[in-house]
Amino acid sequence: MALGALFILEVVILFSFIITSLFMFVPKKNITVHKIFFSLAIMLSILVTVIDATSLPANYVPQTVMAWLGLVPSALAIIITVAKGRPNVFAKLLVMLSSIYGALGYLILF
Fold this sequence. Notes:
Layout lengths: L1 H24 L5 H24 L6 H8 L3 H13 L4 H21 L1
């Protein structure tokens, strides 16, 4: 039952990430909207990674480390965004990569 609930939570988070990603790339002249959706996408990628890493058994140390490494693209995206002053396409793609990696890690790889 717990794994089923965790799977449903993962699917709901992925669905929200897809919606967030669509709005993140929609061309609007308001930079605040882009920053809000970019921040939301980062939070969702962190949530997916935390669920992925903490759902593994304690003796799966290499898989847990690989799951936590999924945050590296999000960290790079944050660094790029802070350096540029606003999120660019490369930073948005890095956040998407982080979320996809976390989702695949939970659903398929680990």
